[in-house]
Amino acid sequence: LSLKIDAALKKITGQGRLTEANISDTLREIRRILLDADVNYKVAKDFIDKVKEKALGKEVIASITPGQLITKIIYDELVELLGGGHSEIFLNPTGATIILVVGLQGSGKTTFSAKLAKRLKERKRKVLLVAADIYRPAAIEQLKILGQQVDVPVFSLEQKDARLVASESLKYVKEKGFDTLIIDTAGRLHVDEEMMKEVADIKEIVKPTETLFVVDSMTGQDAVNSAKAFNETVNFDGIVLSKLDGDARGGAAISIRSVVGKPIKFVSNGEKLENLDVFYPDRLASRILGKGDIVSLVEKAQETIDEFEAKKMEEKLRKNKFDFEDFLKQIKLIKKMGSLSSLIGMIPGLGSQIKNAQIDDKALVKVEAIINSMTKQERENPKVLNGSRRKRIARGSGTTIQDVNRLIKQFQEMQRMMSMMNKKGFFNSSNKNFK
Ligand code: GDP
Ligand code: MG
């Protein structure tokens, strides 16, 4: 038992600060992971430097290791770099929504166009797909087949002029009352001027409400170059990461983001037409780091046990000054945690003592209401809680006098238990009995 307590105390007192020495291993590992995931060398280096600058000197809080903390910092930076929140497509409320889909050949434009058509149709939009890839004979047929599968009509012309297809499709839309247009364009295997000119012309003709650049997640480094070229030509609004199923780590997204600075909007992750997700930076960050578990664990610990609060609480426990105000804070923490048992697990040594306390969520709500109805003085000094005060509190909190009495009794018991543990030196980390 004493060994266990010792370990627990070590956890709660923390392990000092992040230093070059205790983060260098993790940083080296992360750099390797980023490079493996196809992040551009320079981007990875800048990223690591930035993380290092942020991390050095940070205090390592209760119950996590320096390695975990630095992973968490890296993860947060990555989420930030990938765009913070997520942004959806712009649906024009006043006129037609015109989405132009661009990218290299084989990047997944046609597949994505059909997936997006399905998605928007499900949102009650009147969607038309436009086959502006007129070069490969099979391209129009491919879009037609996909269109059929998602029950969305496809506009095409048997002519070798993509610009004409684009302008004619606009007329057709007006005639037939579609409100959403998805234009699938041609791509080449490599960026070339003719293709860029055509895409730029189509953009000029249709004046899209949104231009989306589709990029194959597996192509890694090349993806950055094509993203740059397309961005310079058509100044796209968002990125679609395709083929993010299978092994692709999606690291190219980091490079693309940092080079062109446009938001990633969708993730296309499978050949089936329902395999389309809105982009969530945190998911991709986890995927790139391949450390979903650590990240969520660290996150949970850090979110809920604020380092400063934990220290203050420890100090109060030690000095036997834990009052209702602190009790309330603990309850808020518990609520944030989601479950009582997980919090108990984080209070070293306390777990077994109050495991059978049987506090359910409803009871917590009640307790919170009762404490909220106490004055500051009452919270800090529960001894003043006489009969008339208890009655007032019950009324104020919508509970009964029995509820209030019960809580006060539980609180007193807890205080007694804590003072007992204090006498045993439980909260004194330098106590030799527990080494
Ligand atoms: P486009 O040339 O840019 O129009 O690319 P396509 O949409 O024709 O896609 C090229 C190939 O990649 C096809 O064989 C697609 O089935 C496949 N593909 C497209 N998107 C995905 C995806 O998200 N996951 C997987 N596994 N394959 C995809
Ligand atoms: Mg295509």
UniProtKB/TrEMBL annotation:
Keywords: Cytoplasm, GTP-binding, Hydrolase, Nucleotide-binding, Ribonucleoprotein, RNA-binding, Signal recognition particle. The keyword Glycosyltransferase does not apply. It is found in: Cytoplasm. GO terms for cellular component: signal recognition particle. The keyword GTP-binding applies. It is an enzyme of class 3 (hydrolase). Involved in targeting and insertion of nascent membrane proteins into the cytoplasmic membrane. Binds to the hydrophobic signal sequence of the ribosome-nascent chain (RNC) as it emerges from the ribosomes. The SRP-RNC complex is then targeted to the cytoplasmic membrane where it interacts with the SRP receptor FtsY. Part of the signal recognition particle protein translocation system, which is composed of SRP and FtsY. This is Signal recognition particle protein. It comes from Ignavibacterium album (strain DSM 19864 / JCM 16511 / NBRC 101810 / Mat9-16). The gene is ffh.
